[in-house]
Structure formats: structure tokens, C-alpha cells
Amino acid sequence: MRQFEIVSQGIQHAIHNGRFGAGTTLPSERLTAQEYGVSRSTVRRAWRELEATGYLIWLEDSSPIVAHRSEWSRRVERTDVGRLASNLGPTFLGDLMQAAVSHIRYNFEIGTPDPDLLPMADFHHILGELFSSPASEVFGYSPTIGLERVRRAIAEEYLSRRGLCPPIDQILVTAGSLQGLDLLTRLWVRPGDLVVTESPTFAGALHVFRAHGARILGIPMDPFGLRTDLLESQCRSLSPRLIYVQPVAHNPTGITMAPERRQALVEWAMKTGVPIIEDDAYGFLAGPDNPSLMTVNPAAPLVHLNTFSKVLAPGIRVGCVVAPHDVIRQLASLKQLSDLHTGTLSQLVAEGWLRQGQVDRHIQRAQTLYGSRLKTATNLLVRDNTFRLFAEPRQGFYLFVRLPHGMRAQALHQPARDREVLFAVGDPFSPAQDMPDWIRLAVSARPVAQIETGLRRLLRLVHDHAEPGSCGPSEKTKSPPRS
Ligand SMILES: Cc1ncc(COP(=O)(O)O)c(C=O)c1O
Q1: Rounded Cα gap, residues 161 and 158, in angstroms
Q2: Residue 282: which H helix or E strand, with range?
Q3: Which domains does the chain have, with CATH numbers?
Q4: Which of 2, 225, 232, 382 is most buried by a 10 A CB count?
Q5: pLDDT tens readout for residues 24-60
Q6: How far is the CA of 13 from the centre of ligand 1 (A)?
């Protein structure tokens, strides 16, 4: 059992046996750390767990309060999926979403588009037109699969840029791409089934797979992407249910898959029949020579996930799944169980933006901006040589870096926060949960000057915390080739 779990269980026990009644303020972080002989960040982690499972109410700047949680809700037995989901420690994604509204200055935690790229004038115009349309068309219910005109615009104005031209009955509009991934997992993955991913990979995807009881096999990556040479040997006789990949500007490493790897992956899927889920959240950052994997072989068993969260605005919650029509029909039936349709207004805003004829210009600006921010961050970190970079990507939102020997990302998180710096800890991106000394730095939404100042602050903090001799030129690690 990990240390924070021991603390969390101790506090749960104290709540159950009445030592801490509903409404009681818990002893301070310092006292709790002393009681259990752990660090204060471990206490905070335990509190976060307990908050996520409804035991505590915690407003971060003081000790938590025991929640008034009805006894009956503790007695109702959870289903397998409910149990899996609540035992997951849902705090990582929760923390990320919380970081999205944080006012901390050097926020490298959340991967979001630059707010200055939000096309606010276009939104004004689009919303103005929508407000003068019949109210029921804008604010009424709409089909679960997505409005036809919106699916048409997505196909013609967006997916076409990725080399896809699906008929609109092969498109389901979702509330972001994570919903698409959850629906696919519900449809295809039983508890105990094996899912293959890149290692590391998007923490949200791992969260979904684990919540549905999947076993996860992470295939290592190098600066050219997934090690496709290992697929055959590592998956032999394991019958994976699916393989989840991000071929462009991968989260968290920024790596774009090399052409020969794309080819090998698609060939493997064709040979084995294992469906590929292609998450193309950052596909807009690729050049025309790097379209969807579907273009490698249109007959490949492949489902394409896309989203407007990274190219436009995450808060509108519009994404899509592209798959054969029978799969789309089944996914729509599943979506209906909890979400009758993606918000009509959001869909229409996305459509309005797609039809304005500004998509190419917007994407070019985004590519230039994010490319230069990534370059600034990479140059600074390579010159400094305290961290080892997983790769030196030219495009994307992120850098994934390893801390000096003996350091733990989790232990550094709070001290960094105290210095107005946020980063994402690396372990949740690891299928095997064995990357506690890695961190992800999202630089997409920070101007160059903030990147430089924020990273220098972080480096100073790391030097203050590092074991003697573990930082600096003696640690020099060979940088991998640029991806
Ligand atoms: C690779 C990847 N896929 C999906 C998502 C989630 O996107 P959405 O907001 O569309 O659910 C993210 C968000 O960080 C991501 O990085």
C-alpha cells in the first residue's frame, strides 16, 4: 500500500468510527504528517483522494472538513465499474481541470490552447447570427448523432484537412474526444481485457481504460514514436482488444510518429485485426504530409477521434468519432444513456467557425506560435541540462522531462506551486505507473517571457531540492534526435 493510501484509509477509518464526525475540521497538514510520519504533500494527496470520494470538503487553503455524507450512500454496494472508477484516484484529471481555472502565473500544468488565439471576434459574429435564428434551432434538443449540418461542416472543413472524407453517417458528434474514447471502451472492452497503448500516453485515456477494468500494455516509444518493432513480440498470443495511439504531437512527449512507424502500425493492425483508435487531438499541428493513419490504408480497422478542444476552445466540448456506420449507431445508443446529444449551441458555434473560411489562417498561427514556444522551452532546458528530455519535438503543447536522480515529481509539486509554478506529475501518463520522476510541461498557453521565467524558477527549485551532485553537467545525458 502506498503512503497516501495508508493516510487516506486511516482518516476514513476515523470517520467511520466517529473520531471525526460530519462537519469536523481535520487536524492540520503538519499534525497529520507528524501522526503518520509522512510528508505534507502525501497528506494533501490523501485529502484529495478523500475529497474525490466524497468524504471531505476541502478548499485547499485550510484543513478539510468531514462531509455530511448520508450513511445509506456508504452502504449501497457499488458496481464493478463504480468500484473501479472510485478506487482509481480520480484526482489527477480533477487536478488538471482545477488547474485550468488557477490564477497561478507560471501554469505549465494544463494543455490548453493560447487564450489569445481564441477567435473572439468570430465568436461574437457567429453568436450574433445564432441569436437571431429561431430559438428552437439553437436552444432545442437535437439528434444524438449530431446535427447533420454540423457533421457536414466537420467532414468538409476539418477532417478533409486530415485526408479524410467520411460520409456524414460515419460521424458521431461527441462532448469532446474523451467522451468518444469512453464510449468506444464501453462498447469494446470488458473487465480483464487487454488494451495496448504507447508508453507513456495521455493520462485521461489510461483513466478511462482502467475505469472499465482493462489491463493495459504500454509499448515503449522512442523519438520516432511507438516502437512498432516490439508490437509483434509483446502482443503475441495476448489478443488485445484495441490499440490506442496519438500519431501527431503526442501527449505527453510531443512526438510525431515517423512514416515507417505509421506504415508498420497499420500493417500490424491489418494482419492481426486489432482495431486502432487514432486520437488526433493535435493532428492540426501536422503538415499535409502527415494526414490521418486512415490514409495509410483505408481498409485498416481504424476509428478516428477528433476534437475542437486543442485547435479552437476546450470549453465548447465538441469532438467527434469517425467509424463505420454500424459502430457509430452503437456508440450513439450508448451516448444516449447519459447524454442525449452534444450541446446544440456548442455544435453550432463550431460549425459557424468552420464555415467562416478562417480555419487555415488560424491553424497556421497556432503552428507558428506553439512551435516557437516549444523551441524556447527546449533550448532553455537543453542548455541548462538539469532535466533529461524524452524528446525534442518541433510541434505540440508539451515537453516530457525527467527530474534529476532521486527526485519525485509529487514531492516537488507543492513547493513549485508555492513559487507560482505548476506542472503535471508524470506518473499518471505511464501505463505501468513507473514514471514518478517525470513531469509534463505544457507550454502552449504561456508567452515566451513567462516560459523563460517560469522554467528558471522551476530549475532553481529543483537545484534546491536535488541531492548533491545529481544536477548539472556531470549528469549530461545524450539528447535523443529531434522528432
Ligand atoms: C491526446 C488527447 N486526447 C483527448 C484529450 C481530451 O480532449 P477533449 O477535451 O476533447 O475531451 C486530450 C486533452 O488533453 C488529449 O491530450
Answers
A1: 5
A2: none
A3: 3-76 (1.10.10.10), 94-116+361-475 (3.90.1150.10), 120-355 (3.40.640.10)
A4: 225
A5: 899 999 999 999 999 999 999 999 888 877 788 887 7
A6: 36
